[in-house]
Amino acid sequence: MVVAGTLQDQIVRVDLLEVGAAPVECFPIDPASGVPRKRNRLNRVLAVRLDSAEMSEATRTRSAGGVLIYSAICTHTGCTVQSWLPEERHLRCPCHLSQFAALEEGEVRGGPAKRPLAMIPLTLSDDGFVEAAAGFTRKPGYQR
Question: Model pTM?
Answer without folding.
Answer: 0.90
